[in-house]
Amino acid sequence: MAEPLKEMFNRSYFERLSKEVSISAPRVDGGRLLKDLMNGNAGRELNARMRHASITLGTHLPSDYRKAVDVLKDVAPRMPKGYTALLYPDFVGQYGQDEPWFSLEALKYFTSFGSSEFAVREFFRRDAQGTLKVMRTWAEDDDEHVRRLASEGSRPRLPWSFRLDAVLKDPRLTTPILERLRTDDSLYVRKSVANHLNDFSKDHAKYVVDLLSSWDLKHPHTAWIAKHASRTLIKAGHVDALALFAFDSKVKVRVDDLRISPERLKLGDTLAFSFTVTSKGTRPQQLVVDYAIHYRKAGGGTSRKVFKLKEVELGPRASLHITKRQRIVDFSTRKHYPGEHVVEVMVNGKVRAQASFDLKV
């Protein structure tokens, strides 16, 4: 069984951190720092451990904020990269609000060790325009980590963080950043740009489609971003989003022989279904085939989840047989409830067939 993520902030990590801090700041008592870092650690979850660590560092590092940051800048290169390195930006977010320009420069430095995407949002929430002014310069940086931070840190709906209401209200605020990064060589950056745009899908679908329509989709990097940025709109059958990629919402097809096996399942069983897509057109057609499951909710209603299947060009009168298997198990993000579950097959965003299975939990 995998070790819980919170164990990244364990005694071994804090021993090393205390040692390195005391090397960079000899006046810090490493033993006392370790004791305070470990105090109550066992009872905390992942982010609570990190927040406790940043607050504890604040009581041991120099009281001068800039000197404290300088200590962490010296420590960071000697410590592991990855999630635990989010500790340094978290410290900046907690203690640096009164010195935003110095703090933003510190976040730029720390982001290459882990990511400053969460901490920078604290400054964005306090001064959106001022923070955006700095982040636009990050979009032109030579370091891909910094360029990604410009996009990821200003995402309107960043997972594990609060929403940026100013950006959700006016998506044009971050357009200059996205424009600058639309042909970025780094896949790491392009993924962020695509996710940034996808965040807008629910509230500003027209903005997303209009912006993508204005870009040169013949450029391979831009085309990649556009495709992934449109994924939610395409699943929803948004006509203009489909048209960007030559998917006609009025495509001439039929779906036959949708079969589900077994029709009665228990939690842990594997759902299998198959169907045939047949073109009724007289010329090749571009198809995006998805499926949806209407999951039962605790209160008796249902929640619809769309899944990708495949994209294909289907010739005139041609047929394509598709099979799919999916194990029905609980996740941290989805708990199953008993009852009828409807499965839908969609082609270019429109439901073409449906069937159901009964789940026992």
Overview of the molecule:
The chain is an alpha+beta fold. The chain folds into two domains: 5-184, no CATH class; 253-360, Immunoglobulin-like. It is 42% helix and 21% strand. It is built from 16 helices and eight strands. It has a five-stranded mixed sheet with strand order 2-8-7-4-5, with no helix packed on it. The chain has a three-stranded antiparallel sheet with strand order 1-3-6, with no helix packed on it. β7 and β8 (350-360) form a beta hairpin. α1 (11-24) packs across α4 (65-75), α7 packs across α8 (128-138) and α9 runs parallel beside α12 (187-199). The longest helix is centred in the first third of the chain and has 15 residues, at 46-60. The radius of gyration is 25 Å and the shape is globular.
Fold blueprint:
Blueprint: H1 11-24, H2 30-38, H3 46-60, H4 65-75, H5 87-95, H6 100-110, H7 119-126, H8 128-138, H9 144-152, H10 165-169, H11 175-181, H12 187-199, H13 205-214, H14 220-229, H15 231-235, H16 239-244, E1 253-261, E2 264-266, E3 270-279, E4 285-296, E5 302-314, E6 319-327, E7 339-347, E8 350-360
Parallel strand pairs: 2-8
Antiparallel strand pairs: 1-3, 3-6, 4-5, 4-7, 7-8
Helix pairs in contact: 1-2, 1-4, 3-5, 4-5, 5-6, 5-7, 7-8, 8-9, 9-12, 12-14
Distinctive features:
361 residues, globular, single chain, Immunoglobulin-like, alpha+beta, 5-stranded mixed sheet, 2 domains, 42% helix
- Spell the H/E element sequence: HHHHHHHHHHHHHHHHEEEEEEEE
Largest sheet: 5 strands, mixed
What topology, given as strand order, has the largest sheet? 2-8-7-4-5
Tell me the Rg in angstroms: 25 Å
Structural class, from secondary structure content? alpha+beta
Distance between the termini: 24 Å
Number of strands: 8
- Uncertain regions spanning at least 5 consecutive residues: none
Helix content: 40-55%
